[in-house]
Amino acid sequence: ASVALVLVTTVFFSSFKSSSVSALTRSDLKLLLDDVRGDDSRLVRWDATEHTSRRQEQGACAELPAALDLIADGQETDDVRALAAEYATFCITYRQSGES
User: Fold this and answer.
1) 91, 95, 82: which is closest to 37 by C-alpha?
2) Is residue 93 pLDDT above 90, yes or no?
């Protein structure tokens, strides 16, 4: 599923690459990921944790466009692109409401 997300994201956003967004380093991505992830170490995430949801609302995903640029950049290393994809996954996974 994460490979499909990377592929779809890469294809879709490759034409929207933003020159105004600063490039993120591996260290930047690790810090951003740690911030939005919190202590969520689940292998499969059906929804965001309360921490992730709160951090999303507080702007922890402001660098999502830059992360998507890294995913689309064929010059980046696979490990940097993987960190960017993981960060993007945390940013687009929302908390499910209790009962419908």
Assistant:
1) 91
2) yes
Q: Using alpha carbons, select from 53, 43, 51, 34 the residue that is nearest to residue 92.
A: 53
| C-alpha span between 89 and 45 (Å, rounded) | 9
Phi, psi of 51 (to 5 degrees): -60, -50
Predicted structure pTM score: 0.74
pLDDT band per the 50, 70, 90 thresholds, residue 98: low
> Is 86:44 a contact under the CB 8 Å cutoff?
no
CB 66 within 8 A of CB 25: no
Rounded to whole angstroms, the Cα distance separating 56 from 4 reads 23
Report yes or no: 52 and 95 within 8 Å, Cβ to Cβ: yes
